[in-house]
Structure formats: structure tokens, C-alpha cells
Amino acid sequence: MKDQLFRDILSRVAKPARYTGSELNMIKKDWEQAGVKMAFAFPDVYEVGMSHVGGKILYGLVNEKSRHLLERVFAPWPDMEAIMRAEQIPLFSLESFRPVLDFEVLGFSLQYELSITNVLNMLDLAGIPLWSRERNEAHPLVIAGGPVVFNPEPFADFFDIFIIGDGEEVLLEFLDKVETSRGLEKVEKLKRLAAIEGVYAPALYNVEYREDGILKSFEPRFAEVPARVRKRVVKDLDQAYYPDKPLVPYMEITHDRAVLEVMRGCQRGCRFCHAGIVYRPVRERSLETLESQARHQLQNTGYEEISLASLSSLDYSGIDPLLKGLVGNYGEKGIGVSLPSLRVDAFSIDLANEVQKVRKTTLTLAPEAGTQRLRDIINKNVSEEQLLDAVEAAFKSGWLSLKLYFMIGLPGEREEDLEGIIEILQKVKYIGDKYSRRPVEIRASLASFVPKAHTPFQWRPQNTMAELDSKQQFLSRRRRKRIKLSFHDRRTSYLEGVIARGDRRLAPVIYLAWQKGCKFDGWSEYFNFDNWQDAFRESEVEPEFYTGRQRPYEESFPWDFIDIGVSKEFLQEEDQKAEEGLTTADCRQEGCSDCGICLAMEVSLNIKGGNVDALEKQI
Amino acid sequence: MKFLGNLDMMHLMERSLRRAAIPYALSEGFNPHIKLSMGTVLPVGLWGENEYFDLELSQRMDIIDFRQKLSVALPSCLQLGECQEINDSAPSLMKIINAASYVFLLEPPFPSLDKWKEELLARPSLTVRSRGKKKGLDKELRTGIYRIEVEQSLNFGRVEIWVAVGEPVNVRYDELGELLLQTGFTQKSIAEVFRSGNYIREGSSYLSPLEVRLDKHTSPCGHSGVPPCGVTIKVGGMRVNK
Ligand code: SF4
Fold first, then answer.
1. A252 inside 8 A of chain B by CB
2. A60: Cβ–Cβ under 8 A, 6 or more apart, which residues?
3. Are A106 and A141 a contacting pair, CB within 8 Å?
4. What is the pLDDT of residues A198-217, one digit of tens each?
5. Which member of B32, B44, B73 has the closest CB to residue A334?
6. Min distance B33 CA to chain A CA atoms (Å)
């Protein structure tokens, strides 16, 4: 197959390097000697999948630290897919060019709700039945992990297993057990695997719904299967595996650089933020670990840039010495440091200036809402003064372009909040024009708010597409010169919303949408909303049921059985405080706000630096 | 490696130089980059047997040491050929390279190669549709085709064509491919194409950039003791391992 691929096929597709494998630091293990053979599938194109840090962690973990084997698979771009289907080339892995069907485990990384159609498409290309119930012991075990699976229910019928929480904490244990359960009947195998904490096998549960559509019961079918599935947590990131020799692709990918994961989790408590809740508590890596990881990664990759990744990297307690060290050690060699997420304060701008002494292109800040009242509702603890201070500091020090992130459709939003967005943008532009010799460029990205499972806003209705449309128009009408507004597609937000709080009854819709040709739904050139609407109609599922209702507090949710550590009571209190416009302080600075996780999971905030300076400078 | 674009190739070399901890020189300015330049662009879909790069160093380095470090750092799809010091007055590769050779490996059925060569070279005009800047227009290649060597056995054929780069006419490999298709070959019979060399053509001799600069431009920069010093690097890709 490899022969045919290189000789006849690859010269006919765009970006053939997506399919050639053999990148620097690729690990190709001996197939015969290996234990469990797992294919790690990313349901998006190579450039996107290869940019994902979690994938790099699992790749190195399995291949370096165990006798099992893990090979990569990405979604072929439609041009390649067409040729593969015409020439009957099955989905294959990039290490050994073997069909995915040859593997024992096929694991998908689900980072985004709408990538599910790509999952189905990849299963189909692999020649694997799409429905879990149609697969037997001879088929690969199809599993998934990632942020989306904190509500796995809409996808429950397609997967045999979901892995909930930090993958590196559980994957090896899981693969060991797959190995010792070989030969068992599928249901027995699932039962054994489900005994591992963090492993959820949907086929082992019965779900019933009430007449009005609301969840009635969710119960294990066997006595030995746990009623709730608790997420897995890495307690100490310093002890967790992190790759020193990440893969270096030959072609340019979306995030083509060395990455330091400085911490996991975020304690700021923004009420709309899914990741901020499900990845609690905050756990940091120590300065020493990070410095050594930076050194090894740069030595082994030759990358020209190193980036600090996490939900809020500037909250890292050792940020100051870390950045100074990186710039000091590598700046001279032409290696840059990048900070993908900045906090909205002047201190952050100072730090950004320090690392980006020369390339002052675009700076990104996220005030999220247009007025203090609404920012209090969503618990985004940033004042207008802080924002304008940050902006002033940025323009004073030579930045020429600024990008601001906002959300529309937030709970409690009024017209004045939308006006507020425009006002902020005008003030920002005014400051920019004052300090900069050239006319500055202000861009605002306006996402639509999507209520997510396990967040304080999980009870709230989502704006309808018509509401979002009129809000978008309202803002567009008030737009000023040299302020660019870009809106997220409200139709994708709507679908995301349906799936984010969906249940098992969505499976036929997803299946139908895929059958009608939906794939790469995250890519505007392929997104086809009509197909989705038809799929809802034909399967007689009412999407508004999932997005449109204000859900009562007593309602049982399909995802309640996933134990994320943070209590439902805490989420409810947060929602009530939002209603009253009260904020909740950051538990790292102002003390525990009793979300419950530290006690329930015997974890704690793991703050390594204890860098009082940085803490004090935070406002 | 034949599927890499030009920019990807540069990245690959730069990253290899960093891994090898070569004391490369950096450009000044907003976006400092390694002072590395490629001889001629190797088109996507081709691999090259003899490709050249010039690199400026920030301090002089023993050439054997350089070779050793860089060859360890290069990915397995690239092989380091020769490395040679040059001084900074040496003209750039891009300026001096004026010819290249391409190899077409053939599978039967195909016409008699000797006869084909004779007839082709006897023709005063060889036109193809241009693939370069003047896309679609007719392009006269004859003056740019310098030399052809053929080799034929029962189930294998090899055609190597030396052509002009830049002046008098820039001959592209895909235009040569079309020429083959016009003169009796089929797409199926062309099993593989690669660039076998880049040259400085002087009269009837084809010199490699290493030879030329060795003769004319090497006054070892170490003598003055002042950087910058340069190195020309020759690398070759490898055929895809089947
Ligand atoms: S239990 Fe307290 S300290 Fe721990 S994450 Fe929750 S709020 Fe923060």
C-alpha cells in the first residue's frame, strides 16, 4: 500500500506531506514485539491534529514508557478521501501504513463537538461498523477522550469506551487491561475495563427518558459496574510524563513550535468556561521541570519558537523567572517565546513586551463582555480600568494592532451590553490613535455564547439563531471605521449547543447528517447546515429541546453521572450568584470557594513557584 | 522529501542546524533568521540528488566537526554530501548556478531511447506549453536543452537531460515531462523523476558549485580571523524507501 501511495497517489493530492509520515522523532515500534496496538486518531486534518499537545503526550507516553504501541491517524482531506475511496485504500496509520482495522484499540481525541462527523467518516473509511453494537470482539475497541467527552452521551452509541479526564493518568493502565482481557466476549471485556476509574462503557448502562423528554433514569445494567464515573486527575504535573522529543513535522502545521504546558486547570472561575471547571484544580509544573523540558525539546526539535500553553499562562506563579530564563538562554540563538493567552492587565503587557522585544504584531485580550454588570454576571473579574490600562501600556510600547475577544448571547445580556462592546472598542481605538504614530487596527472577535455541561450556566437557555442574528446586526450597524468585527457562525454555535448538552437520542441525527455528507463541520467551506436541519427533521428530534429551555434546578442531566469533582451544588450557587450579579473570587488568591474538588478527589491546588512578587502584582 | 515545498525544506534545514548546535549567523532586524540560502528551488514532487545551500557562520568552525554534527542532526530522508568553506565574497549560489540535470526513470513500454534522443536533438524547435510564469503559452525549449544521456535495458530505461537554468531559457522539469509525453512516452512509463545535479556550465563542462568556488573563491577566511565565514553544504534526498 505504501508503494502505491508514494508512486501513484500522493502526487495527485494537495499537501502530500500530510500522508507521508516518517517525521523527525517519529517512533515506529516493532509490530510483532509490541503489546496492545493502538491507533490514535485525530478527527481533523493533519496540520490541526499535529498541533495538539495532548496527542503528543499520549504518543510519547505509550511508545516510550510501555510495551504497547501507538500510531497516528488523521482525517484525510476530502481530495485524498475521494482517491482513497476510488482506489479502495482503507484508512491507514502514518507509522506503519497499516489499515486501522489491524489495531486492537482505535482512540479518538475529541476536542470539538462537531468533529463527530469526521469520526464517523474515519470509521467508515477504515471499514469499521459505525455503531458500537455492530462491532464484535474482532473489531478494534473504539474509544474517545478529550474535553468533549465530559458529556459523552450524544456519542454513546458510536463508542465502546470513553476515557474521562487526564489521559496520561489512565491510558497505560487501560492498555494493560485490554491486553489481559484478550479473548473475552465484548461485554465481559467492557465490564473489566469499566472497573478502571475514569473509564466509561456506555453499553453497560440503561437510560430512560420521561414523556416530556427529560432524563428519567440512568443505571448500570450490572451490579459490579459503578453508577458514577469519576474523572482521572494528574495530581502532580512534575511527575507526569511529558515528551522531550516531540514529533517535528515536515510541513507547516497550525502550531508549529515547541510547547511548554506550564500548568493545567484555571482557578479564575469564569462561569461560561467549560475547561475552567472540568480541568480543576490548578496544577503547576515547577520551574526546574519546565526549564529542563524547554532545553530538551529545543535540542531535539530545533524549533525556532517555544510557546507557553495553558488556560491562563500568565497566572503561572513562576512566570517572571521562567520568561526571563527562556529569553536569556535562547533569545541570542534566534529562538522566540510566545504567549498565546494574555491576561487583561498592564503587568501582562509588560511581560509580553519583554518576550516580544521586536515583533510587536498583534496583541490579544479577552474582556468577554461590554459592561461591568455583565462581566460580573459571568465572573470575568476584569474592570474597564484594567482593560484600558493594559491597552494604554500596549500602544505606548509600540504594538500596532489589537484583537479583543467578546461573547454575545450571554445570560442577562441587554442592549446596553452590546453598546458597551462598541464603546470599549472606541475607547481602545482612541487610546491607540493617541499613542501610535500610525493608525491602529482594532479587531473584535465576537463568539456566540454556548452553555456547556458541567458549568454554572448549564441550566440556561441558549440564544436562538434569530436572536443572535439581530444582535450581530445591531453591532454591525454601530461599527466604526477601522474597527473590524468578526462573528462566529451562529449556526455552528447552535449545533455545538445542541450536542454540548445533548443525550443519546442525538445519535441518529448525527448518523443521518454524516450520511448526507457532513464532514469537516468546523471548516466553513465544508459546513452544511441544511443537511443538519434535514437530519433533525427526518429523525424527529427537536433541537430546541436541548438549547432553548431554561432548565429547572431539579432536572437530572444526562451528564450528571460523570463526576468531575466540582459539585453540582457549587455550580448552582454560582448560577444564582450570577443572577444577583455577585462575583466569586479566584480561589488561588482569595481562598477556597468550596467548589468541592480538592476535598472530593484528595487533590489540592498545586502552586509550585510561590512567587509572591508575581502574585502581588496581580490585580 | 520529494513532497516538501520550498519553505518546508528551508525549515527542515534550519531546524537541523539548530539541533546540531551549529554557530550560525543571524540576520539583523525584526525577525532574525538564519543566514541560509538555497541554490535553486527544488519543486514539490521532486527529490534531488545534489542540492546546495550556503550558510553563514558567526564563528569559524572546523569543517570535519561541522560535517559530523550536521549529518547526525539531519533527518534520515536527507544525506549530507560535501561541505566546503567559502569566503564572504563568493557570489551566491543563485547567481552562479545556470544549469541542472533531471533524470527520468522509465518502465516499458517505451520507444528506443537512442533513436528518440537522436531525433529529438536533431529537431530545430521543441515547443511545449509553458508551466512557468507565462502559463499556457507556447515555450521554445530547444536552446535550453544542452545534453541528453540515455541508458536502456530490457525492462528499464533512464534518460538524463541537462538543461539551462535562467538563461537563455529556464527549462522546468514538468516541461521536460511534457516533452517526453509529446515524443512517444506515456505517463505510466515514467516511473520516477528527480533532479540529479545543479551546475555551473562553462563551455561544454558542467562544474559543481563546490568545484567552482574551490578554484576561485576560497581564501580561507580563518586567516583574517574575522567572521563571518561561510560554508556551502551539499545534501541529497533519498528515494522513497519502498
Ligand atoms: S476546592 Fe477550593 S481550592 Fe480547590 S479548586 Fe475548588 S475552589 Fe479552588
1. yes
2. A27, A241, A242, A243, A244, A245, A246
3. yes
4. 999 999 999 999 999 999 99
5. B32
6. 7
